[in-house]
Specification:
This protein is α+β, with helices and mostly antiparallel strands. It is about 30% helix and about 25% strand. Strands 1-2-5-8-9 form a 5-stranded antiparallel sheet. It has a two-stranded antiparallel ribbon with strand order 3-4. Bound molecules: cobalt (II) ion.
Length: about 190
């Protein structure tokens, strides 16, 4: 496994529409593992291929938290989330059903130091292939549902700050221009 470099806003790769994968090769399965390693190391709960410089429709997610021994636990998750086979490597994911609304405080590894409340669908159903090329069908809500929507946005060239009102979005982009990505100054 290898750790990959995460690219940050406003890198133009993050603005591009990513293309569907025709087949799930061994290279893609390895890339999925590398993306997971990169995400865990960051640390983050989701990572999309454009964030490591590849405009392909692929993402990884693991929204489980860790217990005191450092082991993954699903105790604090919803029933739907507990049924999901984490960690997820999703290839060509498509949202097939969306319901309700939810507001969640989101951040992004490509916009370090910033979090904002974003409105998303409260419940989503998703079809995708896994790293073995098998068809997956997922039902997700709570953090996992939000995370899937956030990562699929990346595949469509969209980052979470574009989902904010103009006022809040301008405030963030101004801060980024002024302070860059230094977490200590970003709080100001
Ligand atoms: Co992101």
């Amino acid at each position: 496994m290898a750790k990959l470099e995460i690219i940050t806003y406003p890198n133009p790769i993050l603005k591009k529409m990513s293309t569907k994968l025709d087949e799930v090769t061994d290279e893609i399965a390895i890339l999925g593992q590398d993306m997971l390693e990169t995400m865990y190391d960051a640390p983050g709960v989701g990572l999309a291929a454009p964030q490591i410089g590849k405009n392909i429709r692929m993402l990884v997610i693991d929204t489980r938290s860790k217990d005191e021994q450092g082991n993954f636990t699903t105790e604090d998750m919803t029933e739907l989330e507990q049924a999901i086979p984490f960690p997820l490597i999703l290839i060509n994911p498509v949202i097939t059903k969306k319901e309700g609304k939810i507001k969640w405080e989101e951040g992004c590894l490509s916009v370090p130091g910033y979090t904002e409340q974003v409105e998303r669908f409260a419940y989503v159903e998703v079809e995708a292939l896994n790293e073995k090329g098998e068809k997956l069908f997922l039902k997700a809500d709570s953090l996992t549902g939000v995370c899937i929507q956030h990562e699929i946005d990346h595949l469509d060239g969209k980052i979470f700050i574009e989902r904010l009102s103009m006022v809040r979005r301008n405030r963030i982009t101004k801060q980024i221009k002024k302070y860059g990505y230094d977490d200590t100054t970003a709080e100001a």
